[in-house]
């Protein structure tokens, strides 16, 4: 549906531009925007390669395992059923650890696996369990120690200090995670 909306808006904008005699400006804007988009993507590619390499070093050095071991006791308190199954808890820990370090591509398979494992523990297959809902909330509001994507975009856009976003992101994602977990735990009592 959203594709139709975007297409309609684009078509309407071009039609209005042509009927008002601004067709030349529209052509110039299209060419200029494609050039600036290409520049942004090339700049973003280099920075993303750097951060992906840095995160791969963190993974190979064992930093992700250290973070995972720190998370396990906390997650055992939060997840009622998933904490009883080591395989499920392991998938949850690896997903959250990868997200915290900005490895979103690596986090996705672990997130899918965690949901599959929690579904096996779920007695009502058609309804998400409390642990599944809590996992989605924590995953969506995941604390970011290294927001590599945002840093990359800021660097590609010419920011003088692209890393300045680290502390505000840590605060914002930390508050979001705390509020999300709190709301989930409160709502679990009623639903």
UniProtKB/TrEMBL annotation:
Keyword terms of this UniProt record: Membrane, Transmembrane, Transmembrane helix
Q: Which residue range or ranges hold the Nucleoside transporter/FeoB GTPase Gate domain?
A: 41-154
The regions listed as transmembrane in this protein's record are: 6-26, 38-58, 92-112, 133-153, 165-187
**Domain of life assignment:** Bacteria
Q: Name one Pfam family in it.
A: Gate
Q: Which InterPro entries match?
A: Gate_dom
Q: What is this protein called?
A: Spore maturation protein A
Organism of origin is Clostridium folliculivorans
Task: Name the gene behind this protein.
Answer: spmA
């Amino acid at each position: 549906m959203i594709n139709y909306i975007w297409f309609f808006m684009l078509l309407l904008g071009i039609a209005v531009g042509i009927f008002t005699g601004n067709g030349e400006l529209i052509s110039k804007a299209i060419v200029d925007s494609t050039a600036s988009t290409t520049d942004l993507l090339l700049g973003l590619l280099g920075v993303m390669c750097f951060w992906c390499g840095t995160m791969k070093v963190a993974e190979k050095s064992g930093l992700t395992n250290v973070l995972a071991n720190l998370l396990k006791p906390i997650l055992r308190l939060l997840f009622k059923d998933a904490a009883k199954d080591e395989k499920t808890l392991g998938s949850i820990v690896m997903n959250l650890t990868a997200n915290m370090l900005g490895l979103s591509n690596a986090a996705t398979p672990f997130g899918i696996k965690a949901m599959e494992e929690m579904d096996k523990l779920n007695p009502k297959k058609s309804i998400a369990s409390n642990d599944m809902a809590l996992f989605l909330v924590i995953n969506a509001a995941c604390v970011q120690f290294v927001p590599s994507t945002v840093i990359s975009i800021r660097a590609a856009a010419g920011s003088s200090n692209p890393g300045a976003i680290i502390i505000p992101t840590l605060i914002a994602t930390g508050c979001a995670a705390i509020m999300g977990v709190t709301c989930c735990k409160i709502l679990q009592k009623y639903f």
